[in-house]
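FAQ: What does the model actually see?

It sees only this:
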Amino acid sequence: MIELVLGGARSGKSRYAESVAKVSNKPVIYIATSEVRDDEMAQRVAIHQSQRPTEWQVIEEPFALANMLHLHSHVDNCILVDCLTLWLSNCLFGQTQTPWEDYKQQLLSTLKTLPGQVILVSNEVGCGIVPLGEMSRQFVDQAGWLHQAIAAQVPKVTLVTAGIPMHIKDIS
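And it is asked to produce this:
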């Protein structure tokens, strides 16, 4: 089963996703997509690291998310990806020669084949005003289209606001 977990910054989406992974009673593989480029991001990563159980396997992968999911998804484990919007940012604006649409299609195709439990965490960034800059608008648009494409093919979508999970799609 695949679940897409959406929420704003500091909404509790990661805490919710981690709780779902914990209650799965399966070995958890945590795929971290962030690249630490400044002190503020290093602090955010440190907070997430301190909240995770030490027995979880952690894989840091800023680009090849589809490959990591394909390699590590098994019927008897749970993969938690945190987060898709950082991955999107890496793919759109990072040091890569691969076009974003290729990364996106690889992920969408891979999701259809995964045998295990997967929890995908992502920021809902499209609820505010339209950003002024072209780069910001591109990011918001691509995040929205990515979320729509994933939500169309996964059985469960949860929106977390103020720490409260709201199941907006559940066909399990």
